[in-house]
Amino acid sequence: MSLDLIQEARRQAEVCNACRYCEGYCSVFPALHQERFFSDGNLTQLANLCHNCRGCYYACQYTAPHEFDLNLPKALAEVRRESWENHAWPAPVARLFQANGTLIAAACVLGFALLFLAIRAIGSAGGEGFYAALSHNAMVAIFAPAFLFPLASLAMSLRRYWNTVGGERIRLSHFTAAFGMVAKMKDLAAGHGDGCNFEEEDRFSQSRRYAHQLVMYGFLLCFAATSAGTVLHYVFDLHAPYGLFSLPKLLGIPGGLMLAWGTAWMAKLKIAADRHVGDQSAWGGEMGFILLLCVVAVSGLALYVLGSTAVMPLLLALHLGAVLTFFLLTPFTKMAHGFYRLAALVRDAQRVQARGATVPKRAQQASARS
């Protein structure tokens, strides 16, 4: 990790630790205020707890032109991006995507779409619905490895991260606490519950929180729709295409609408936000990921509407190209943030529960001495 970035984050964390004005803002500050000295692992953990809501920056009395020149969201965003790059496997791909994410995503989508059209042209088709454009066997042969690769890559990345932050043995209670935070996106509401200042410094808003929730729950519904289709195909021998009131479409259509709406909303918020309160070098990679997810959602919805028309093969190639790009780039895009964020919350739950167990013990010892 860059020595300059980690030293600057350490300097700012030490000032924040002395001030403590932002103690109730999010998960970062209780964890920060528990430390006296900040190791590289401490700062990596704090960086991945941070959601860059920016409330602390706009409330801070030590930002420029003060001589302390604090910009903690930016410092943590830069450490966070470097932590993803350093822990990712293979790391060079992550560095490349963060710098040129939009161009890489667009090139991959178009390249894979042309590949699917070429496969269709050489005769790999047969069946009903989408399988008339590309055979089921061809889809499985391409997407099975593409689905397994990001899982393996993320597993290696998260293991490296867990070792860096000093993670301990995980219990069910740690997962329960972490998933509760993720489900509510509680840190994006800030400590006061009015939301964050991502769009404008003087206005609290829940917009970013709701956009994140639309993306997360929309993606989960789409994944559930794909899983339902897989079960219907292999377990019940019911093959696509499925009717409007089938489980894959009852899950997939609202999921696609939520995902499209959420990603478009996030892109709008990101364009309006002040870039100097984040990691400017990662802006292209983050925007590339958001737009990629939007293309996945919109092309999937278009297939629902136009799946029986002459443009179906072209739309299918575009959609499958976007989905394949999403799978292959997941370990190196902002999608990885969700996994690192969950790991950071699990680690923070360990800290909170360990502290909760220590305080009563100290109280008992003090009572016994008195």
Which consecutive residue ranges, at least 5 long each, have pLDDT under 50?
359-370
What's the tally of helices?
A: 13
Q: How many strand elements?
A: 2
What is the CA-atom radius of gyration, in angstroms? 23 Å
The overall pLDDT, averaged over residues, is 86
Strand-residue proportion = under 5%
**Secondary structure: helix percent:** 55-70%
Structural class: mainly alpha
Q: What is the CA-CA span between the terminal residues? A: 49 Å
- How many structural domains are formed by the residues? 1
H and E string = HHHHHHHHEEHHHHH
Major β-sheet annotation: 2 strands, antiparallel
- Choose one word for the global shape: elongated
Report strand order across the widest sheet.
1-2
Written overview of the protein:
It contains 13 helices and two strands; from the N terminus they run ααααααααββααααα. The chain is mostly helical and 370 residues long. A hairpin with a 2-residue loop joins strand 1 (196-200) and strand 2 (203-205). 39% of the residues are buried.
